[in-house]
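User: I'm writing a tutorial on reading structure tokens. Could you give me a worked example: one chain, its sequence, then its tokens, then a sentence or two explaining what the tokens reveal?
Assistant: Sure. Here is the example chain.
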Amino acid sequence: MLCPSGPAIRPSAPGPHARRAPAPPPSLADPDVARDPYPLYRTLRDAHPLFEDEPFGAWLLSRYVDVRAALTDPRMVAPPSGRDSAHLEEATRTAHHALASPALQGRALAALKAGADRTAHVLARRLSSRREADLVEEFCHWLPAAAVVAALGLPHEDTARVTDWCRTGPARRGAVPAGLGVFLRPHVVRRRAEPRNDLLSVLCAARADGRPLSDDAVTGVVANLLDAGGEATDRALASLLANLLDHPAQLALLRSRPDLAGAAWAESLRHDPAVHIVLRRALAPVAVSGGTIPAGATVACLVGSAGRDADRFTDPDRYDMFRAAPGRQAFGAALSEGLCTQLARLTAESGLYALLDALPGVSWAPGFRPVPEGLLTRSPAALHVRLS
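And here are its predicted structure tokens:
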């Protein structure tokens, strides 16, 4: 109701100590964020723990407690995988269920470890006579896929082709590479007739509900292993090596205490995860610390932010392989199957052991500093080192 007389009353200007709503943060789509996402992560955790990033097309979760909950909440599902056919995805799930039995898993892991050990030592020995090298280009890019090839017992000369599938196939498209089934079929036929002491023979001998796994099931598991042996493990291994080279005292201790390799790997996944963003879709409204995620929303779980949350980790920006509980969400959905997760760990540990054995004097090349790249996935683009 308007006042008929008297001076107009104007709202007073905010005083110097008045609290203002926090300014909206930049979008994940901003090119500057990909150069260094950690300042944005801090802003999101402190002031915007649930934030609708319209340019990026998702709601952002940045705190450890919310990210960890979202990755295990049945109301938060992975987006459609884009696999070639539903029956192939179902066959793959059946195969993973069969491989969960202790007997088969033991044989499978033994084959994976043997393949990773053999491949890592071959690659490391090739570098031992050199004075300098780029460990990303000459070691990290090749080890994961080559380890899978060796574990499966596939011909060594097919390593380059399989490596190309790792870089451009399942890890990037969420689909089984078109030529993989054709490539594997004659090898599967031979392993069914004449089993060997390799992982492909283990898969061909596995049974689900009393019946042998189908060729589709075997192909699906191999595709998952190639996914695990692709970009995520490649990047995670590069970050592990960068963290250790940045901390010579911890690297020196690891030489005398190789049993610490698992702890060094887990801490590196927290400090510098290969997968920074894992997408989910909310099937129903989900309450989180910053509000409620609406049903149907696409959610970006910021794994890279969760690993640096000071409410969960003391001095979170420091790399410390003696950290008591570095967390377990670092790979998010990238390596959802137990066998694939263990493959990544075995590959990284085998690579580390091989390098420490073959390159006792490895250190950064003079004047070199690693530069991480990427946002969805992130790691150093190069690791230029002096080998003696």
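What the tokens reveal: Residues 155 and 327 are 38 Å apart (CA to CA). The mean pLDDT is 84.
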